[in-house]
Protein: Phosphate acyltransferase
Organism: Gloeobacter morelensis MG652769
Amino acid sequence: MNGWEKTVRIAIDAMGGDYAPQEIVQGALLARAQLGVDIVLVGSAEAILPELRRHNAAQSVEIVDAPEQVGMGEEPTIVRRKPNSSIMVTMDLVKQGRAEAAVAAGNTGAAMAAALFRIGRLPGIERPAIGAMLPTLKLGKRVLLLDVGANTDSRPRFLEQFALMGALYSRYVLGVAEPKVGLLNIGEERGKGNELVADAYEMLVNNPHVPFAGNCEGRDVMTGRFDVVVCDGFMGNVLLKFAEGVGLVALQILREELPRGIPGKIGIALMRNNLGQVKQRMDYAAYGGGLLLGVNGVCIIAHGSSKAQGILSAIRLAKEALDNRVLERIQQQLILPM
Amino acid sequence: MNGWEKTVRIAIDAMGGDYAPQEIVQGALLARAQLGVDIVLVGSAEAILPELRRHNAAQSVEIVDAPEQVGMGEEPTIVRRKPNSSIMVTMDLVKQGRAEAAVAAGNTGAAMAAALFRIGRLPGIERPAIGAMLPTLKLGKRVLLLDVGANTDSRPRFLEQFALMGALYSRYVLGVAEPKVGLLNIGEERGKGNELVADAYEMLVNNPHVPFAGNCEGRDVMTGRFDVVVCDGFMGNVLLKFAEGVGLVALQILREELPRGIPGKIGIALMRNNLGQVKQRMDYAAYGGGLLLGVNGVCIIAHGSSKAQGILSAIRLAKEALDNRVLERIQQQLILPM
């Protein structure tokens, strides 16, 4: 942060995810100390206050009371009936300009619904998209997959906008210098696929703002060849959940095969730590969370199982998005003829 | 096999896959000995003959010479320009009644194209489908996923027919007593998903011949909850290839994490055999191959990396399909009002 930037203020839903409010509050305080951001905690004041006191921060951090909550398993549309839920109030703060970005953990679909009800779409964006990050073959490199479920039906034009937004988020939020965008398809060649993707391909090739690198087959999603992969929300949602399932199967195979025989049992004992790492990296479900792209505000959703470090990371992403004016950049590219 | 059944005769493409013709010929001879089937080997006579001689079987097994070949990487439509390829001649034998089923290894798309050109669709089937088998969390249990790429666009009625065919193949070829059919979707509840699957759901619920067990989310494909999962060919193809990619990522994670430190290196040495098993089970690509459903003949495609045992298994599936009159059963259910 340089001296000319003003301090950004981020609204944090303190009640979402498995470890709320303890880990959320702790992560928010870490962000405040390490990133120099202002934070507003949204949720049950009775639950948040003791956590702040424990960290001697009750006098320096604002709380906005929101008595209702939206659970992980609830349908996104539930937010309509819970206007005082922490996720809705968090979005309210952004809408009212009392915060510049929203960070929440947990139910991504509900967060998207709340963002749309409260903040709305970016002008010019026809459909918002949920972006998810998946691991790749390259250590430390992730791929941004979108849309993973904001929409059930899609049109070529939507995919084009997803590609544009994905490229900007990859570059200015995730820090990829020259992002490569792929279009999820059943073959590499131009002209492959169903009508939707064949038409989208032509739009992507002809859009100078999209760093389009061609079709991405299913097996290439996680090779690291692409930084951003676009698909319709139905496909993306199935794929994301499928990845979680495949990760579980992989872990199950390890559990069944590794301990066989006495050498296996000794080996397991020796490799306890290494296996812990394997488990962590294969638990694709833990890569969850996401970016809400195309809403008229910066909204980052951490995975429901996030602890303080995960919340800190999500807040860092929100700050990157603000510092790099991602929303303005999207708008600029929408104004130009596409 | 009981005394009343006549010996079935199966045409085998001896030139497909990574280990042709040696392993194909060996697998075919195993099937002949163990399953009591007649076999016809199709391909380059010069290549097949020495293999038969090696097994002292040159006098007892027929060869049909087919000089051309279709490679793994070739587009399915190439078969049009290679009428004398082993896969096309294999299908010719079925068409002419000189064999009752076709077995090949390798390029499933090309095999489907050849089957359609030569044998055609089963009367009443609007679109054929390629079925693939994936491993599940339950040891030894697989799930039949279809369509994995015979069609790029789909209609609800096609999915209904896929479900019907998948259930019959699951029961009478794969030996699942009471197969459960799932519809791949983004949520479990009725009414979820895009127009295609929402409409297909209603058709499946109302079809008394389909043992429909509801929507199957991405994460449930490999849990073993369903025996058959239906989806459009675009989705299925992406998913199948994605599973291969995820398997590779999982193996890569093992390679990177397990050997860390001295205990890790000792552990690896101790677990060599167990890790070999893990590798084999996680190599989802090796689960490839498939069933061609909806063509007017029994066609089983083994994976391109199949050795003799894989070919034997594929021939066993073909025999099961013939013995259990799967094609007639599909026809019967199509005649009834759907």
About this structure: Chain A has a mean pLDDT of 91. Chain A has eleven helices and eleven strands.
